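Supplementary Data S3. Sequence and structure tokens for construct A.
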Amino acid sequence: MTLDSRLRDVETRLAAACARAGRKREDLTVIAVTKYVKTETASAAVRAGVRHIGENRWPDARDKWEALKGQAVFHYIGTLQTNKVKDVVGRFDYIHSLDRISLAEAIHKKAQALGIVVPCLIQVNVSGEESKHGLSPEQVPDLIRQLKPLAAVKPVGLMTMAPFDDEPERTRPVFRGLRELRDELNRAALAEAPLTELSMGMSNDFEVAVEEGATWVRLGTVLVGKEDLGAH
């Protein structure tokens, strides 16, 4: 499939999922995960109308960021080590993988030095899979309380990854769990402002995530494909 045909196919599937859930398509943002494609492909996606780019590591994202800064919103969606914060804060508009107070403190320190506020999503391991990063749902309220003194870190929502499953319908409880957790946290008014974003759903399961309330879906292969990056 060409990039244009993949984009059209994804849009058709998103519209159908929104219709099934009684949602508006404009309430959903697609993040193109470009870690498996070249800068040229990421640039072509932006020219075709994609406005959000997701990357897992700064060294892999550098060329794309330099080519597309100012043209796309950049999301850091990978595990973030504290010593890598200096490379990420100030370049990425959102961080999706906040999962500990030491990381939040490092983000806050760098953001303050730059005079910016960083919108972050708290990563939650809803499924409890040992291979997945993130807090357990029970740990999230404490982290939100700990974030209050860190004015340069703004929690805006939650992120999760569902276990890969050949039958996407089986991922539904994970996505529903994240939505229900967000709603519980908002009812408790733990954060300074309501948590609005749910970053959930990838190439294999995004339609189920949309039906369960995702506001951001992170789409790689199904949207931009996968290329041989050689030694990259």
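Construct B, processed identically:
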Amino acid sequence: MGDLAALVARPEAWIALLTLIVMEVVLGVDNLVFVSILSNKLPEQSRAAARRIGIGLALVLRLVLLSGIAFVVSLTKPVLVLPFAVPALADGHPAFDLAFSWRDLILLAGGLFLVWKATSEIHHTVDPEESGDLLDKKGGATLGFGAAIVQILALDVVFSIDSILTAVGMTEHLPIMMAAVIVAVALMLVASGPLARFIHDNPSVVMLALGFLLMIGATLIADGLGVHVPKGYIYAAMAFSGLVEGLNMAARKRRKKPTAVDRTLH
């Protein structure tokens, strides 16, 4: 208890906490978009429960992983090494080794799942008549509650490991990490409802969000293969695309408003 009181009294601890909260919120955007899109495939009365359960599972997973930081850090150690040979350059001998850790394998699996999911949802949105799934009034494929929770949980694992490794790299104090995760997930829970409704009410935003998920999936695959793409580039592209879509939405609303001439004619 005395160590915790001493930590609270240190200004750098509060700076680290605020920085971690911002980082966790930014990293949680990917998870939140996925949860929002997936929950919108459910009947309306089940959507809020799916969001709460999905985000609640994300919080539990992150706190559990934080409690076993040593285990999480061990996930970065190589467990699979594949020798690669380039005959023209290495006379058939292994030119280099491609090493994979459990983290890399999880990122690869999560990235492939996200690319598959985003691609299938884009297909359902563009051409719903060719889908064998049940269709809702908006033309989107419906989804069972259990299937939605399983898919949310699968991505929670991927995003949680990435989030915890980022937190471990920024501070060594476990209470700060846990506090940042709790605050960030609470903010995600508050934002999930409005975000899901906004995506549901604006079909063009659905396609944009699916494009984001496709890009995030490709980034996870690249990261799993050892090619690190700075997160700042990804979120800058997402912010710019969101700004352009916001301008398009504003322009469409302006065009729909009756002008003074239209009112006179009617």
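Residues 14-258 form one domain. Strands lie at 78-85, 94-101.
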